[in-house]
């Protein structure tokens, strides 16, 4: 019987390939790759965490829109910025149309995450609050984000 770690390596390799494909897709959409680093530095959040949230929210699709929210709101772009943020964003000079720009969307997503972290600490609860108000749903969402972290981040934690 092979050592237990040999079965994991193909799974990690497959994840790395998916991550690279996603990164290449972002490079193709207006050079958004630099936006991860910029937004992360500006708001003091991890760029890989931002990437994992975008992958969880939109499968890295900058044109994604979700109109199926129970409260009538909708989610826009790469980071799926919820429309309930629009009045607040207008105060900062950000219009809804600007959220279709991947870099603007990443910046707003980083800002939302940073606000959660200020309120809840640097925690998975804060990550979960990006998508859910309910504590149980936050945990489920945070686990999805964790699973979308790039393999090198997970390797660093082991």
Automatic annotation (TrEMBL):
UniProt entry keywords in alphabetical sequence: Signal
Chain ranges of the Transglycosylase SLT domain: 35-132
Regions crossing the membrane: none
Annotated Pfam families: SLT
Signal peptide: 1-34
CDD domains assigned: LT_IagB-like
Keyword Hydrolase on entry: no
Protein name: Transglycosylase SLT domain-containing protein
Species in which this protein is naturally found: Duganella radicis
UniProt lineage: Bacteria, Pseudomonadati, Pseudomonadota, Betaproteobacteria, Burkholderiales
